[in-house]
Design goal:
The chain has 129 residues and is mostly beta strands. The protein has one helix and eleven strands; from the N terminus they run βββββββββαββ. Helix content is 3%, strand content 47%.
Amino acid sequence: VQLQASGGGLVQPGGSLRLSCAGSGGSLDDYAIGWVRQGPGKGREGIACVRSSDGSAHYADSAQGRFTIARDKVKNTVYLQMNSLKPDDTGLYLCATDNFGCRSLVIGITTALSGYTNWGQGTLVTVSS
């Protein structure tokens, strides 16, 4: 399966964006799908993940209550709705399949990304006034 992220852009603090992760060459329903952020000069960290087994969603503490991950089975797409954006949310957002079923976010180790594969190219989000 191939993934392509889109929907990034420039937004003011407090604003919202919806990112899309479109799949091709396979059904995203067969995979746990995660969103990962790489901030300027920082490493990658998991932000949100949705399981394939039970459809449960899991979030990093920084995203909890502000971001929502959801599947659209018809469009073979996973969305990340981001509200109340902060400058610290700035970064490149990538989506990927997670062979470990969102385990890194379940246990709260957002940098444990060894199970992530099929990385898309990413989309840039800039939160600035």
